[in-house]
Amino acid sequence: MRKPTRVLRILPLFALPVALLVGTVSVQAQPPAIHVVMVDNSGPGNPPGGAGQGYYSFAPQHIVVTQGQDIIFDNPATSRWPHSVTSITWSGSLPYQTLETGRIFDSSPTMEELVMPGASWALETSVMAPGQYLYYCNIHPWMVGSFSLQSAS
Ligand SMILES: [Cu+2]
Question: What pTM was computed for the model?
Answer without folding.
Answer: 0.75
